[in-house]
Design brief:
There is one protein chain. The chain has three domains: 140 residues, Immunoglobulin-like (Sandwich); 257 residues, Methylamine Dehydrogenase, Chain H (7 Propeller); 132 residues, Immunoglobulin-like, CATH 2.60.40.1860. The protein is 5% helix and 38% strand. The strands form eleven sheets. It has a six-stranded mixed β-sheet with strand order 2-1-4-9-6-7. Strands 39-38-47-46-41-44 form a six-stranded mixed β-sheet. Strands 3-11-10-5-8 form a five-stranded mixed β-sheet. Strand 23 and strand 24 form a beta hairpin.
């Protein structure tokens, strides 16, 4: 770690608590301290990406020493008070204290320690804190949220409108379109699709679930989007279509598929990833739901169990109910209800629901915000963000990462259900209500509202995920909306509650008249220039196959293969069947074999695909890269070199 470059740098401050000197002194005498000026439940929640390297500078701004400790990993101290540690310092020197990896380090008053660590594969919430017990117990603690590698995130999006052989576009956590599936093409299915994705245990690539939205109730799962479905099952016999979600409602992190019927009522079934029925809930919501209900499976209370969230579909009340995932996973017969509330939109609007961590300051910062959008009515197309602490009171000693349930075995570890009823939960019958409800005299109101497409086109689909940013910025929690699979909106929420939306467009090309469409991945032609779309996550990569690189010049080249001869900015990568590999990286050595290996990898054949990721800042037109022909012995003459360049850079404004 001494020589490893950090992907993200942060500053953590140990601070006193209190608005006045007198309050600070009283808290000091009571062993009450904070992190970045706040106590647990109100502190920051850094979001870290598994597989990356983080560098934190911990500054002690108090008058006593504090010991820093982080769960789920270890770290290397690389500097003290800004002075780098020499890992080769001789014995007897003070630096010897820091040469070994640590999980606790003392930070004296007025001093700082800089640590560096790799984010290990422990997805979910855990904590860091002062390791002095009275300080920790009084709230000198904060949550870390570890998310899986953005390259393995899979957001499935499909058109809201019914279509013949409907397709699903799969987008990763770097905003790249990585695949397009027609999951039911073999059946001649026409209609809409229901989609979801999650990680199965500690997998680094998400499993994708797709269901038929009407006419039948079929679900297919994909562990690998490049391969056939790994499981298929019929969730209900009513053939009314399904809504679905996939999440870790289990004791060991295994994925569980929650499927809701779109027939009249409020019925939900849970399946494992091979299609085995685990549990059934009937009449989950009170009221009339003529088109069934929607489901979400995400952790709402920060205990590392995905909770089951059920909401009314269009035609019914936008009622939202969250049921405790830990109770479900451990087989509690009457799982407690975490909250029930009515979202915006009106009596028949229905609601889509998701959860998202963002920077809006609220109580219980270890809990995500609740995101809703109505499926019809006057507010269709509007997204609302709700403060979860309005429904679940935060508890100062409810520490995520302390004793989360563990399990083992090959399945989701749900205990067997009672014989005869498959563990049905009828209505609210017997369910424990540990909940706050919006039926009080002061119903909750959203803390943020926005329209990702400016209100055009009506209702939107909804999910949430994370995006990798450029320039060493932390991974970004985003709310994702779409109406078609070619236009996807990514919205982040600032600490001040401002929504910033970037709309990316997929699978489109230039208009015949040369006008500028709203395109982020245009087709590239021989010697063509193209326009580059730059959003808050940085420029979008552009993927190219051989025909797009060469076009009619192919016949004039020396052979049918081509070599990338030079690049002028950004990254040029080639897909090797497993991952993207940087083509322009310098050779690992000077031997002829190494040089030949690199030249061979720069060859572009008929079945090869490359992509160009522009530099994070590109403020003027510039050349991108050049290719020349290669027949195995010689290059084509310089007159056959093909160059590509940027013609215009488009920086979209927030909201479009």
């Amino acid at each position: 770690m001494f020589t490893t470059e950090a992907d993200v740098t942060r500053e953590i401050r140990f601070t006193t608590i209190g608005d006045t000197p007198q309050a600070q002194v009283e808290n000091l005498l009571g062993d009450i301290f904070g992190i970045n000026g706040e106590r647990f439940g109100e502190t920051i929640t850094p979001v870290v990406e598994i597989g990356t390297v983080e560098e934190w500078t911990i500054r002690n701004e108090t008058i006593i020493s504090h010991s820093f400790h982080i769960h789920q990993g270890k770290f290397t101290v690389v500097a003290v008070n800004g002075r780098a540690i020499d890992p080769y310092a001789p014995p007897g020197s003070g630096e010897q204290t820091y040469i070994s990896e640590l999980d606790v380090v003392m930070v004296p008053p007025g001093e700082s320690v800089t640590i560096r660590f790799g984010v290990e594969n422990f997805p979910g919430n855990y904590v860091f804190h002062c390791h002095i017990l009275p300080h920790e117990d009084q709230g000198m603690m904060a949550t870390v949220r570890a998310v899986s590698p953005t390259a393995g995130l899979r957001t499935p999006v499909s058109d809201r409108a019914a279509a013949a052989d409907p397709a699903v576009r799969i987008i990763d956590g770097r905003s790249h379109s990585v695949a397009v599936l027609e999951p039911f093409a073999d059946l001649g299915y026409s209609g809409t699709l229901a989609t979801s994705s999650t990680f199965d245990r500690a997998a680094l690539v998400q499993t994708v679930a797709v269901g038929t939205g009407e006419g039948r109730s079929l679900v297919r799962l994909y562990d690998d989007i490049e391969a056939p479905a790994t499981a298929e099952f019929t969730a209900f016999d009513d053939n009314a279509g399904v809504s679905l979600a996939i999440g870790s409602i289990s004791t060991d992190g295994s994925a569980v598929v929650a499927v809701a019927s779109r027939a009249s009522g409020a019925n939900v079934r849970l399946f494992d990833t091979d299609g085995t029925l685990l549990r059934e809930f009937t009449d989950v919501l009170e009221g009339d739901f003529p088109n069934g209900v929607n489901v979400t499976a995400q952790d709402v209370n920060g205990d590392n169990f995905a909770d089951l969230i059920v909401s009314g579909r269009a035609g019914g009340l936008p009622l939202v109910k969250a049921i405790d995932g830990e109770d479900i996973a451990t087989g509690v017969e009457d799982p407690k209800v975490l909250f029930t509330f009515t979202a915006g939109g009106g009596d028949t609007a229905g609601a889509k629901v998701a959860l998202s961590y963002n920077d809006v300051p609220t109580k219980g910062t270890y809990m995500p915000k609740i995101i809703t959008t109505p499926e019809q009515g006057e507010l269709a197309g509007t997204v609302q963000v709700w403060d979860t602490s309005s429904f679940i009171p935060p508890h100062s000693h409810d520490y995520p990462g302390h004793g989360a349930a563990e399990g083992s075995g090959d399945g989701p570890s749900l205990p067997p259900m009672p014989h005869g009823d498959m563990g049905h939960m009828g209505g609210t019958g017997g369910m424990t209500h540990d909940t706050m409800s919006s039926d009080s005299d002061t119903p909750p109101t959203p803390i943020v509202e926005f329209q990702p497409f400016g209100g055009a086109g009506g209702a939107v689909e909804l999910t949430t995920s994370y995006l990798q940013q450029h320039g060493g910025a932390p991974v970004l929690p985003v709310i994702i909306n779409w109406q078609t699979d070619t236009e996807v909106a990514y919205t982040s929420i600032s600490e001040g509650g401002e929504a910033s939306t970037t709309v990316l467009h997929y699978g489109l090309g230039f208009d015949d008249d040369g006008s500028v469409p709203r395109v982020s991945r245009p087709a590239i032609r021989r010697a063509a220039s193209f326009r580059l779309h730059v959003g808050p996550m940085g420029p979008s990569p552009i993927t190219l196959d051989l025909s797009q690189l060469t076009g009619p010049v192919a016949a004039g080249m020396a052979g049918e293969r081509f070599v990338i001869s030079s690049a002028f900015g950004g990254t040029i990568e080639k897909w090797d069947g497993v991952r993207w590999v940087d083509l322009m990286a310098p050779p690992e050595g000077g031997s002829p074999l190494e040089l030949l290996r690199q030249l061979s990898f720069r060859l572009i054949g008929a079945d090869d695909v490359i992509r160009w990721t522009p530099p994070a800042t590109a403020e003027e037109a510039t050349s991108v890269f050049r290719i020349v022909g290669w027949d195995g012995d010689t290059l084509s003459d310089p007159g056959h070199e093909v160059s590509f360049s940027i013609a215009e850079i488009i920086h979209p404004s927030a909201g479009g």
